[in-house]
Write a structure and sequence with these properties.
Chain lengths: 516, 516
């Protein structure tokens, strides 16, 4: 058995049975080995950023890693931005980076580069097996490393000769630890702060944003205790019947308002809040002066368990406060980001998975969908745009019985637009909505917010996507995804209904004005 | 004057007046400063890999760097693959990577990552100015570093507060050295080998592949001396009136045949040849046993001068042997990679710049265009596919009076397809030919060559682009580039004629069968 075969058999034993792939010559033995291991589904992506983003979406929903197969340093480089998002999301991902044969590297062939330096920027674990005989055990350890709470990117650098050499054997799964219980002192400290009557904020993140954590946290809410979510959750369970939570705002000024006056900030799976960017005259830390930060649970801890324990101490009688069901009325007139959100709230199917990279066009989405049937909401965790369409692909493969809705800003969509081809190739049940406002609207806002003085057209032209306008229905059709353009709320509703009703991928171009 | 303004004024003084940009919030002061520095042309790209590939194309043709503006670590990551190609091409490129404000970095905001680790993989020079007052001088040094022979990627990491703080001033250009003359001993050693009568190969690379170097080298060719080009030149001047040179083959077996029996290998701007990939049972080095390698000139040396000096010693009486003019006859029948090459050879305009990422469909191009009017040929130097369309954009901006022809494999095109939007936005005179054979043909070949045994459909499916087929005319139209699909040689010729005759961008989808 060669290394590649042992690797694949080991992965199957470890529960890894999807491989998003953009292979090259150095990965051909891995590719060939797929023929003998039908339990691993190979999913071709036309660009590595699609493959890594799909692995992120898969891992967020499946709770276990997909493999993602990349071709040497440049292939890893193309996949880094979405691995950066996966790192911030704490998603378990197994990156397999093919490399030149061990003896070939010193010749500095054209594709040679410093893979380890590149991998270090996103990976919590990196290994380079030196012999085929080691590969099985290294692969099992890689999966365990990816699964180490709260989850991380584990990178296995696979030299071509280690892949093609005989003498390998599959290894059994390696053990990995479960999320750690939180020490009693942390629970007691949080409970004490919450019972103090002083203004408190509980900031939820990670697994705290699943149904169990939200239920426990909602028991703690009171006149003096507010519960908020981290700004960009990896996966947030929400909708009717699930306790709701507002997100900490993206704009530092608004976030500061949300936190103003609080004397205790209790972190439950979230990090202490910081401004997304630095702005002249605004602080980086969003923790108010005089506010004590209590670390209840790290992202890798048992966050729901910690919240439940605090609730037993601080609010033993309180019940959870689930979101009542409710949908917006169907809007009329021209399509806007706001009316599109209402349509989405009115039609979102039960069990939907929303991949949200709508950016400025998404301002109204949270409110409009709050009372929709239960669903999962996945956000842009690391700020590296181009996540949404790939993430949707991975989520759809992880959850083939659920409807996936990708809400996508036009500018961001163009980074990884070839994801649509994978949507079509795999006939994934994904509805993509492109909010086409023909500009980088967020940058128009930020240009002013950072105090940059733009006095002419050169700067504005770099934020403009209107010349030429992009016809996303043509792009979708060119990659095998049926598409419609919509300019009124009624057209958008009709298109969305049809897309949800039919299996397979669809794209709707939503022509909306910029929100500001 | 703030840092960004001083930076831009410094760049203009150093001859840098194009900036390919994909900016974000941390670069807004740089963007705003463009309004006050009209001598810098900002060119928006919808993905960083387009911006870096365009900077490579610009630098190869202009002989001086363009700036490329990238957004933090993820933006740099997206641009790395084409910076890798630029590194292998020895192209002068100035990468400006916006970063968080200096004081913001320790807060580990979502977009924070290890920019230095990423930059180290492609950059010959990296600096991170700490104060606005340093920025002018650092920028001037960055340009000089990019220009240091043979040219390299210089990376300036620009913290947002260094960009927005006052107290900066433009700096004058920094000195950089010219290509070094080659020592007399190296010239004498090469001349002695060439006069020995033993079989010799002169391997040309870098500036040795411009008209002057080719002329000198051709004087040295004889019954015992063959002249070859490195496999993937950054820029090769060729066509009628210029001495021709064959390229060392990509396939190691064929390259070994070309070099078999040679006793002396003289490197003139090229590196000692190595196999592109490792293959079981094939050596990595392509230098034959018993062959002595003579280093005449490094890529950063005065390669044409060294060749001329050798010619004066070894072949003082010999003249250059220019390529006679000649074009293929216009072919008939179904379009194939071979007939498409003949059409291109028949129609290639004088002074054309060819961005060649045709891969397996390009096998017949060199022969078919050998006697066409003089032109430049730019190849995929680093093996990181997705170079061709961006490179064409940069070349067109560097040389607005010349016709640019991008010859592009379908698989490779999809990595950076949004380059077409920049072609349209800037109305660049680029004709893109997509060789649509609907598979990763090179990988089908390599799967067999590496000895991988594929027994089923799972592996072959990862090399297949036919389900769904990609409609490149729809993709082009969606981004504002007029496009036609062609299935016969006559249709292809008609489309190519029209595209060359009309200004602005065009795309021709050439439906061809795979060559094997």
């Amino acid at each position: 058995m060669n290394g590649a075969q042992a690797l694949l058999h080991t992965l199957v034993g470890c529960g890894v049975n999807v491989c998003f792939a953009n292979p090259g010559t150095s990965e051909m033995h891995f590719v060939a080995a797929l023929d003998g291991v039908p339990d691993v589904r190979g999913v071709l992506c036309l660009f590595e950023g699609v493959a890594t983003g799909a692995a992120d979406g898969y891992g967020r929903m499946a709770g276990r890693p997909a493999a993602v197969l990349l071709h040497l340093g440049p292939g890893l480089a193309n996949g880094l931005a979405n691995l950066h998002n996966a790192r911030r999301a704490h998603t378990p991902v197994l990156a397999v980076v093919g490399d030149h044969a061990t003896y070939h590297k010193r010749h500095d062939a054209p594709l040679e580069s410093d893979i380890d330096a590149l991998a270090s920027a996103v990976s919590g674990w990196i290994r380079r097996p030196a012999r085929a005989a080691d590969l099985g055990a290294d692969a099992a350890e890689a999966v365990a490393a990816a699964m180490a709470p709260p989850g991380q990117v584990a990178t296995l650098v696979l030299p071509a000769d280690v892949s093609w050499s005989d003498g390998a054997a599959p290894a059994p799964p390696a053990a990995f630890r479960a999320p750690a219980p939180v020490p009693d002192e942390a629970v007691a400290g949080a409970a004490s702060a919450l019972r103090s009557g002083e203004p408190c904020v509980i900031l939820l993140g990670g697994t705290g944003l699943r149904r169990g954590g939200l239920g426990a946290a909602s028991r703690l809410a009171s006149a003096s205790v507010r519960v908020l979510s981290e700004t960009f959750p990896a996966r947030h369970e929400r909708g009717a019947g699930i306790p709701p939570v507002n997100r900490l705002a993206y704009l530092a000024e608004f976030a500061a308002e949300q936190l103003a006056g609080s004397r205790h900030l209790i972190l439950a799976g979230a990090r202490a809040p910081v401004a997304f960017f630095a702005y002249p005259h605004l602080p980086s830390s969003l923790v108010p002066d005089g506010c004590t930060v209590h670390l209840l649970a790290e992202p890798g801890d048992d966050v729901p368990g910690a919240l439940a324990a605090v609730a037993e101490l601080a609010a033993p009688q309180a019940g959870a406060a689930p979101q009542p069901p409710g949908r917006p009325g169907m809007p009329d007139g021209d399509l806007t980001a706001e009316s599109a959100a209402a349509v989405i709230g009115a039609l979102l199917p039960e069990g939907a998975i929303v991949s949200d990279e709508a950016n400025t066009s998404g301002l109204w989405l949270a409110g409009a969908t709050a009372g929709a049937p239960p669903h999962d909401w996945l956000t842009l965790t690391g700020g590296a745009i181009g996540q949404g369409l790939p993430l949707a692909a991975g989520a759809a493969i992880a959850c083939p019985d659920r409807s996936v809705l990708a809400l996508e800003a036009d500018g961001s969509a163009m980074y990884t637009i070839s994801a649509l081809w994978t949507h079509a190739r795999e006939q994934l049940d994904i509805t993509t909505v492109i909010f086409s406002n023909r500009r980088y609207a967020i940058l128009g806002l930020e240009l002013d917010r950072v105090g940059a003085v733009s006095s002419g057209q050169a700067a504005r032209r770099l934020l403009d996507l209107s010349k030429p306008g992009i016809d996303f229905t043509a792009l979708a059709a060119g990659m095998g995804v049926p598409a419609r353009r919509t300019g009124t709320a009624a057209e958008f509703a009709d298109a969305l209904r049809q897309a949800f009703a039919e299996p397979g991928p669809h794209l709707i171009e939503a022509e909306v004005p910029p929100p500001f």
